[in-house]
Amino acid sequence: MSARERVAANVANYVDERTGAASWMKKNLQKVFPDHWSFMLGEIALYSFLILLLSGTFLTFWFDPSMRHVVYEGSYQPLKEVEMSAAYASTLHISFDVRGGLLMRQIHHWAALIFMAAIVVHLLRVFFTGAFRKPREFNWILGIALLTLGIVEGFLGYSLPDDLLSGTGIRIAHAIIQSIPVVGTYLSFFAFGGAFPGEVFIPRIYIVHVLLLPGIFLALITVHLMLVWYQKHTQYPGPGRTEKNVVGYPLMPVYMAKAGGFFFIVFGITAFLGAVASINPIWLYGPYTPGQISAGSQPDWYMGWLDGLVRMAPPIETYLFGYTVSWNILIPGLIIPGIIFTGMALYPFIESWITGDKKEHHLLDRPRNVPNRTALGAMSLTFMLVALINGGNDIIATHFDLTINQIMWFSRIGIIVLPPLAFVITKRICLSLQRADRELVLHGKETGRLVMLPHGEFIEVHEELSAAKKYTLTQHQQPAAIALVKEDARGVLNPKGIRAKLQARFSAANAENIAKPTPDELKQLEGGHH
Amino acid sequence: MKFISKYRKHKFAAPLLLLFALTGLGLTFSVASATEAPKAVDAAARSTLIEEGQQIFLKGCSSCHGLNGEGAAIAPSLIGVGAASVDFQVATGRMPMQDMSQQAMRKAPVYNEEEVAALAAYVASLAPGPRAYTNEEIEWERDGNTAEGGELFRNNCAMCHNFAGQGGALTQGKYAPSVMGVEPRHIYEAMITGPQAMPVFSDKIITPEEKLSIIKWIKAAETEPNLGGAALGRVGPVTEGLLIWTLGLGLLIGIAVWLTAKAR
Amino acid sequence: MSNELEPLADPGLPEHIHRKADTDPIAAKRAERQVAVLFSLSAVGTLLFIFSYFFVDQDQFIFIPVMGSTNAHQLGIGIGMAMSLLFIGFGAVHWAKTLMPDQEVIAYRHEMRSEDSDREDFVKAAKAGAETAGLGRRPLIKRALAAAAGLAGLPAILLLRDLGPLPGNALNETSWKSGTRLVTDPGDRPIKASDLEVGGVAQVMPELPVGQKRTLENIAKDAVLLIRLRPTEFQLDAERLSWTHEGIIAFSKICSHMGCAVALYEQTTKHLLCPCHQSTFDVTRAAKVIFGPAARPLPQLAITVDSEGYLIAKQPFTEAVGPSFWERKS
């Protein structure tokens, strides 16, 4: 044994004698991970989270989460002797008087934007490929929780510097809290320690932002990853891949190198963005005061859809027995987001109710093979996009020579009309793609080569697909719709009532698919068809 | 010809052709839409500045503003708007208006400095109004206070012109333009005349010294380098989010595709 | 039940295609060199960071196309840090792709469900435990425990009581009283009617007693916008008209929707626009909402002039300013 090997052996022995690590490490070092780029989206989010922890800790060494009034004496001249909160002044200090401070602030904020974007694309991948089905429903719910908490954490984070833009955002949040019926004014006075803006809000959200939420994130992310580890990652269908295996690369060394390398890459790209692109230039916004506002005030993108919904809300308030209910705030600010996120969280159960599917699934769906789900996803995305666009309607208006009034009306009507349209179009596209797949399997790929037959007919030569490709295109299952039990064994009509009727309807719509080629059809073709 | 047929099916043929077509189209458009250079007026034929101004007015402004500046359905009266308004509107190129849309846009001026002065003198002669200023007499560098100007700007201007003076949307297609790259005298005149949708900021409400501070802050913001990197338009989170979804995620997903691709 | 015909048998994992570096030692050496170069570039990045951190002046600016004039120190340490991280990643990934084994490995899944025997054992153990605890046979303990546990949560909630004061009447009150002078913000100068021209606006605050400092909480309720129109341009009833003075009208600047400052005044249309959610208010009709999500007009402040000609408030606001709340009387 070389000297190096002896040292390694001693260390391993030391650890193993105290923890018994060898027994669980022996198989986990060889754990297999499927390799596809779409499986790395969650990793982008995970690494962004680590970057946020590291860069955020750096910032806490200088940030002063206090709203006490100070007069600015730092190096940024256009704010000389301006009155501001200590939080704002300390952020200016970090930006201009701490070397690397502005870089770290920017890395932190870009990492937050990437974190949320990665969660969203990861969610979309999991949704469209059906990775949330049994046994992964709980992991999906954890993911929705992470998404929701991420939005809150980001909002609190960019509100800490107490600048004009983020202070306006807090004003809006305050108005939402205050508008809650019965308890709104009490909640807002408790949250803000009195009237708005008060002196305690920033220190309070600071603790939520640096301690409570990161702690909850760490716990949720750990469970989220442990579940993936234990349940093993899903994989795309293909030759050699079944519901009972995982095909990929072992943790050591390939996956460690690739995943570890990817962490450095994500960090590097974030650092690159922090170096070359300015984000949240608080010195230009100025300190927050409730009497000021900037044209074109928006929250960060992951809250833009909320802002868009609030903007397009009809101006409805009702007054009952001397009390005011602000539907124009409650509906877009609390009720609709509540419905959306609850619906998202419950979706695995809704889908399994519709399909009646109680089996475990480890092979992913190709989105075209589940047209209803894919169309539903497209519909939800369209809804969010219209809301998001409306959130930026003033910036869009000035840059594209439109009016805010036009964009507002487009959004008000579009948000109702466009999603169902997106559903129909997407479903039809999925069915067409299924038809194309069927053609490919039965007739092969078009080669573009024309051949003239002896009797004068021109045909295009089709190249038969490889067995592997044919297998991939036909591996999916096409379950039949759930039949409605009209009468049970004892002669009771509609025994399960309206729920069963709904289930049968949805299930029938869900089962609309182009039939896969059957073995007989293929055999027919094998005899001399081009 | 042989060259063309030889490279017809080259993989760069299509993109190059597209680039060529787009460049050609763009150049043609910019040449065709270039405005004419300002014409010098034959000074010898005119006697006083006001008469000069009247001649220019009759030729270029009266069709909308009336033969005596009294206004019409499509254009407001100019009686009492003062030389300041004329200097602002004409020297920034807003007037004559190119199309009768919601708002006069800043563009290349049609009249040169002498002609503007003449027009201003004529309109000032219609009725008393605020006088025009020269850049030299606006001592913003000497008398203005940048930090105070910033406070004043955020209090009185940012709600329309945005925190960095980049401009913002108003209703029905109107907009508050960017205040960057505007001469100090025009900023001053805009505040005192309240052009189009902009309100008037009287000297008792924002004192002349405060106006100088505002100008000083605007100039500081204009010349301030981008402290954190590319400024992305200084319009806030919208462009930041756009960058993430295009460059940020684009790079990262592209790298993920490379990472999982099989090596040769 | 379902159409699960698989027309084709699983052809199995495709043939492994060897990479150049697997078979050709020169290619392997080249790959190794490439990885080494990538890692070295990371070191270069670190050096750039260190150099920029210590030797580039924080006030130095450099012009980069597309980016404009940007801070050289920030750019140096940023690009340095980015390089030092990125190239470790690129190097590791390139190493894995070209030199580490790329044979696909198959592992097998077990059904998530436990063995039936395990399940039975679990149920037995759980039941035995529950029986010995005796909750089933001892309802008194069960109820007492439930009561205790339920109550034990209350102190945690009660401890939060001092997070803030009760709202009381605070939301209905502002600093504006009968006779309060309107002063410019900033500047705190009292205003005469003649100071404001037709088409002009002024940001105003209530004059505070000498020695008292204006707080942000004051601003959040007291901010007022003064606008001057021609008296003929108003379309107000007699009472609201009496709250104006020679064409000057005053509104609360705090948006009745969600509290942003509404100060975007369009002189031509006489409209006020709130930039947060685009609520539009018509000044000639007492800030009536004509577009957008705001449901109520901006509260109007009745103004007049005092004996010296300065603008003063005639009376406090007749309704609560700012966003709506449950107890708000309308």
Could you list some keywords that capture this structure?
heterotrimer; A: 530 residues; mainly alpha; Cytochrome Bc1 Complex, Chain C; 2 domains; two-stranded antiparallel ribbon; 19 helices; globular; C: 330 residues; alpha+beta; Rieske Iron-sulfur Protein; five-stranded antiparallel beta sheet; four-stranded antiparallel beta sheet; 8 helices; 15 strands; 34% helix; 16% strand; flat; disordered N terminus
Descriptive notes:
The complex is a heterotrimer of chains A (530), B (264) and C (330). Chain A has 2 domains: 31-237 and 249-287 and 303-365, Cytochrome Bc1 Complex, Chain C (Up-down Bundle), CATH 1.20.810; 427-526, no CATH class. Helices cover 63% and strands 7% of the residues of chain A. Chain A has helices spanning 3-19, 21-28, 41-60, 86-97, 101-129, 137-159, 164-178, 184-192, 201-231, 251-276, 282-285, 301-312, 327-355, 371-391, 393-400, 404-443, 467-474, 497-510, 519-526; strands spanning 32-33, 69-71, 83-85, 245-250, 318-320, 323-325, 445-452, 458-463, 478-479. In chain A, the strands form 4 sheets. Chain A has a two-stranded antiparallel sheet. In chain A, strand 7 (445-452) and strand 8 form a beta hairpin. In chain A, helix 5 packs across helix 10 (251-276) and helix 6 runs antiparallel to helix 13. Chain A is globular. Chain B is mostly helical. Helix content of chain B is 51%, strand content 2%. Chain B contains 12 helices and 2 strands; from the N terminus they run H-H-H-H-H-H-H-H-H-E-E-H-H-H. Chain B has helices at residues 2-6, 13-32, 49-60, 62-65, 82-91, 113-126, 140-143, 146-156, 158-161, 184-193, 208-223, 237-260, and strands at 168-169, 175-176. A two-stranded antiparallel ribbon of chain B has the order 1-2. In chain B, strand 1 (168-169) and strand 2 form a beta hairpin. The longest helix of chain B is centred in the last third of the chain and has 24 residues, at 237-260. Chain B is extended. The two termini of chain B are 38 Å apart. With 330 residues, chain C is an alpha+beta fold. Among the domains of chain C are: 20-98; 174-313, Rieske [2Fe-2S] iron-sulphur domain (Rieske Iron-sulfur Protein). Helix content of chain C is 34%, strand content 16%. Chain C has helices at 20-23, 25-55, 72-98, 116-133, 139-152, 154-158, 216-222, 238-242, and strands at 2-3, 61-64, 68-71, 105-108, 182-184, 201-206, 224-228, 248-252, 264-266, 271-273, 280-282, 288-291, 300-301, 303-305, 311-313. Chain C has a 5-stranded antiparallel beta sheet with strand order 5-6-7-8-13. In chain C, strands 9-10-11-12 form a 4-stranded antiparallel beta sheet, with no helix packed on it. In chain C, helix 2 runs antiparallel to helix 3 (72-98). Chains in contact: A-B, A-C, B-C. At the A-C interface, helix 5, helix 7, helix 8, strand 4 and helix 10 of A face strand 1, helix 3, strand 4 and helix 7 of C. Strand 4 (245-250) of chain A pairs antiparallel with strand 4 (105-108) of chain C.
